[in-house]
UniProtKB/TrEMBL annotation, chain A:
Residues 1-31 form the signal peptide. Residues 285-414 form the Amidohydrolase-related domain. This is Amidohydrolase family protein. The keyword Membrane does not apply. Residues 209-238 are annotated as: Disordered. It comes from Thalassomonas haliotis. The keyword RNA-binding does not apply. The lineage of its organism: Bacteria, Pseudomonadati, Pseudomonadota, Gammaproteobacteria, Alteromonadales. It comes from the Bacteria. It holds the Pfam family Amidohydro_1. SUPFAM superfamilies: Composite domain of metallo-dependent hydrolases, Metallo-dependent hydrolases.
From TrEMBL, chain B:
Residues 373-437 form the Amidohydrolase-related domain. Transmembrane segments: none annotated. InterPro entries: Amidohydro-rel, Metal-dep_hydrolase_composite, Metal_Hydrolase, Metallo-dep_Hydrolase. Coiled coil: none annotated. Gene3D superfamilies: Metal-dependent hydrolases. This is Amidohydrolase. Residues 1-19 form the signal peptide. Keywords: Signal. The keyword rRNA-binding does not apply.
Length: 440, 460
């Protein structure tokens, strides 16, 4: 057993994490553990930033932070010396079409939309973990992503799903994770109708559920009285869309609503309160105008920190300072990148710009790690014992343009960031007497 | 495309039939106004300003530490250490960086303004494959709040281009990024016009869907060639008119054709080509097209594959305007590499530009250049901040034909400068003060210098 220089404070931290020394006897564990040593670890937990820290990974999880000793018999190649560099949780992006679109203008490579798509639309069936966008996206330190359906004509665009960016065939982490709805100004028709549709859909289902419950109770009572009767005979199976609405009404599934105008956001606050929804607002261009109300209603918002133009009459008050304003008001902010999915790697620069405009670096980091994990119900986003080992080792400040990813791990497995773009660059900067097509 | 008529002898028979006689009395000469919507731009009120002790990136490849810059009479009057100027407003540049004003060679501000509503879609005259007769300046809405946002990002000049639906989209215009009620009040004095051309997928999609030429890339080429052939005839007719008139004859002027006026301007070397063209093989063909019809093929915009033909671009004197990382939105944008700009830049006599084509990234062209700088350094390119700044200052000025006036911090040039709160290639960098012709047009701290569009005024 290789001993580390372990200050007492570290031991305390380790113990406070609730891991007994026995847990460290992991020589016989199925997967080889990995130790990252001498790292500046941004835990995004109450523990804050740990300098010269050690993180032990095993079986895809974080096994220990600052243990008293490294696991017994750990092979030298399983010890990564971070040499004081920064480790953060992997970043989480959201509301894009990663793995559903290869080339936006090529219809055949586009699986996020379907005219007839409704609340039941589950695009995770089409997810392509071998998309060339995925290794490229890893350059941004992104380890997980919430993919949103493009949907169809309905305001119910379908169901969002979570993936990891390992590129492996099993990288859909959770499908049908939440329902995605879009409301707001449109060139034909009224947003009032859309808000009403959303409200009625929930209200009707809630009434139907209440009725069923009454019926059920009456039946149970009757059954009690007449023991000879079989239970539940002739009961209708709920339809697929009804099951989804039930999950929303039970608060088991988040409702993600894309909306921008402040008045729409206030309508949605009422909706949350009336139906006790797990509501998340997306886009939310003018959220800063109603920051207090959003905070009081405990509604998180997913916003792109770079939106600052009055792009429509729904978005007249967008500002680079919105993430800071919302966070200061007590709103849980999740940053994302909007626009074309191909550049979701830029999430870290978005966070950097939010910092330049008033968000603290700590808050910015949380907004693309822990906050996102909480809002999307993902087991990730923090460096804490028992969490999924999504870790990124950075060459410097993770938000800086000059920084790059040196190493990253998704669920404990090391992944690279080398992409098709790198192969093209290497081909064209290499010297060869044959045409470039021979350079591979 | 319209067929031109050459009515040299057709009309005015009784008078002009004898025009070939040497002693004929001449009619008034027909001339075409080259600048009928002239600039009325006036620099804002200015004060002699001395910026002390800044780190100066000149735009010409130099980085000068602890350097003073004196802005006087709209020009960069002095550059060096220990400058003093009595009566000058002094700005402490310690710890700050000074660069030339940023120039975006590809913007649609004003023609696709915010808010992006139907009534504001004025940038793409999608009614014919050749709309060389339209001028972007006639669509510019000076109240676009995007101008203010770009100014806060250090943009002092920008070219507004029409869109890319057509083989020939029309004329672009270069503007000073100053608040103005009229387009003319922003127009960059004496900047050449640009002609927007577009290769590839856009024209073939737009017209192919209408079962019109072009529906293929070969159709695109046929369309360009037909237009240049017509323009050549038109120019020949005008040249003959000029020659005959100069010889004392009384020729009839060719019939005016607004479409061909623009193309002729290119053949005369007065209008510069700005060609939306992504792919290596298409850019190579556009270079040959220029040679076939005797004009210069200018700047390739969105040149995603420029890195594949960096040497021929430099040899032929073409600039390439590129993004650091936009890609994948169509097939012709699939072969992106983040080091594109650096690869193009590495060739002798090259002209690599970082452009935005976006109301959002125009606000952060410094960061766009920074992304390239650092990725290229990781790939072994010997580049510095002093090199990277030229991609967003001097090279776009060259592309626009205004590099004699702006684009670098050099004595005698227009005082278009940006003072940054730190290294401008940091994600945290912000432009603190922006000057156009020596006049402060933006100050991050002083609200007095933060203009607000009429559109946003009083919005609650």
């Amino acid at each position: 057993m290789k001993l580390l220089k372990t200050p007492l404070s570290r031991v305390a931290l380790f113990l406070s994490a609730g891991i007994s020394a026995a847990t460290l006897a992991i020589g016989s564990a199925s997967a080889q553990p990995l130790a990252i040593t001498h790292a500046k670890v941004h835990t995004v937990t109450g523990q804050g930033v740990l300098t010269d820290a050690t993180v032990i990974i095993e079986d895809g999880k974080i096994l220990a932070i600052n243990p008293q000793a490294l696991p017994a018999g750990l092979a030298a190649e399983r010890i990564i010396d971070a040499r004081g560099k920064t480790i953060t949780p992997g970043f989480i992006n959201s509301f894009n079409q990663l793995g559903l679109v290869e080339v936006s203008a090529v219809g055949e490579s586009q699986d996020s939309r379907e005219k007839k798509a409704d609340i039941t639309f589950d695009p995770s069936l089409a997810f392509n973990p071998r998309s060339s966008l995925i290794p490229y996206s890893r350059k941004g330190g992104i380890t997980r992503n919430l993919v949103a359906p493009g949907g169809g004509d309905s305001i119910f665009k379908g169901q969002a799903f979570a993936v990891d960016l390992s590129g492996e065939f099993d990288s859909v982490v959770k499908n049908a994770l939440g329902v995605y709805v879009v409301v707001g100004g449109k060139s034909k028709g009224s947003r009032a109708f859309d808000l009403q549709t959303l409200w009625h859909k929930l209200e009707d289902r809630q009434k139907a559920l209440a009725k069923e419950k009454t019926k059920q109770e009456a039946k149970e009572k009757a059954n009690k009285d007449d023991k000879s009767k079989k239970d539940n005979n002739g009961d209708k199976e709920p339809k697929r869309d009804e099951l989804i609405l039930d999950a929303l009404l039970a608060g088991e599934k988040p409702l993600f609503v894309k909306a921008n105008r402040a008045s729409d956001l206030l309508q949605l606050i009422k909706l949350k309160q009336a139906f006790k929804l797990d509501l998340v607002l997306v886009g939310a261009a003018d959220a800063a105008l109603v920051a207090k109300q959003l905070a009081a209603a405990e509604i998180p918002v997913v916003i792109n920190a770079l939106r600052n133009l009055p792009e429509s009459f729904d978005a007249m008050h967008t500002s680079l300072t919105s993430p800071a304003t919302l966070t200061a008001a007590g709103v849980k902010v999740v940053l994302n990148t909007s626009g074309d999915t191909h550049n979701l790697y830029q999430l870290r620069f978005t966070a950097g710009n939010a910092v330049a405009n008033g968000l603290s670096a700590t808050q910015a980091l949380a907004s693309i790690t822990a906050n996102a994990a909480d809002v999307f119900h993902l087991d990730a986003g923090r460096i804490a014992v028992g969490q999924a080992a999504d870790l990124v080792l950075w060459s410097g400040d993770p938000f800086e343009l000059s920084t790059r990813v040196e190493k990253m791990w998704i669920a404990g497995e090391e992944v690279g960031t080398s992409s098709r773009q790198d192969a093209l660059r290497e081909r064209y900067i290499s010297k060869s007497t044959l045409p470039k097509a021979y350079v591979k | 495309m319209r067929k031109i008529t050459l009515p040299l002898l057709a009309a005015g028979v009784s008078v002009t039939l004898t025009a070939c006689l040497d002693t004929q009395q001449q009619d008034a000469k027909v001339t075409i106004k080259k600048n009928p919507y002239p600039s009325s731009y006036q620099p804002l009120a200015q004060q002699q300003t001395l910026i002390k002790n800044a780190t100066v990136l000149t735009g010409t490849g130099e980085k000068l530490d602890n350097t003073d810059v004196l802005l006087q009479g709209g020009k960069i009057a002095q550059l060096g250490k220990g400058i003093s100027a009595s009566g000058a407003m002094e700005v402490d540049g310690t710890g700050k960086w000074l660069t030339p004003g940023i120039i975006d060679v590809h913007s649609h501000l004003g023609v696709y303004p915010s808010p992006s509503v139907g009534s504001h879609q004025d940038g793409n005259e999608m009614t014919s494959p050749n709309t060389s007769e339209v001028w972007a300046e006639h669509s510019v809405w000076p109240q676009d709040p995007g101008f203010e946002a770009a100014r806060a990002g250090g943009v002092t000049s920008l070219q507004i281009l029409p869109g890319s639906a057509n083989l020939f989209g029309g004329r672009g215009v270069t503007l000073r990024n100053v608040p103005s009620v009229t387009m003319q009040g922003m127009k960059f004095p004496d900047a050449p016009y640009g002609l927007k051309m577009a290769c590839g997928e856009n024209p073939k999609r737009v017209y192919g869907d209408r079962k019109e030429l072009p529906s293929t890339r070969m159709g695109n080429m046929a369309g360009y060639r037909a237009a240049w052939a017509e323009a050549t005839e038109y120019k020949r007719a005008w040249d003959k008119y000029e020659r005959d008139y100069a010889a004392g004859k009384n020729p009839q002027a060719p019939e005016r054709d607004l479409t061909l006026d623009t193309l002729k301007g290119v053949l005369d070397g007065e209008i510069l080509i700005h060609n939306h063209c992504y792919k290596a093989e298409e850019m190579a063909m556009m270079i040959d097209l220029g040679k076939e019809f005797n004009y210069h093929s200018g700047t390739f915009h969105h040149a995603i594959e420029a890195y594949k033909i960096a040497e021929p671009l430099a040899e032929n004197g073409n600039c390439a305007a590129m993004w650091p990382d936009w890609w994948g939105f169509k097939m012709e944008a699939y072969d992106m590499v983040q080091e594109n700009v650096a690869i193009v830049d590495a060739v002798k006599n090259s002209c690599a530009i970082v452009h935005s084509d976006s109301d959002s990234t125009i606000q952060r062209l410094n960061q766009e250049a920074g992304k390239i700088l650092y990725r290229a350094k990781e790939s072994g390119f010997a580049l510095t901040e002093a090199d990277a700044v030229g991609w967003i200052t001097l090279n776009p000025a060259k592309s626009l034909g205004i590099s004699d006036k702006t684009g670098s911090v050099e004595v005698g040039k227009n005082a278009d400068v940006v003072l940054w709160n730190r290294n401008p290639f940091s994600v945290y960098a912000q432009a603190e003060q922006v000057f156009v012709d020596g006049a402060k047009v933006y100050d991050r701290i002083d609200e007095k210098y933060q203009a607000k569009s009429d559109f946003l005024l009083g919005q609650k």
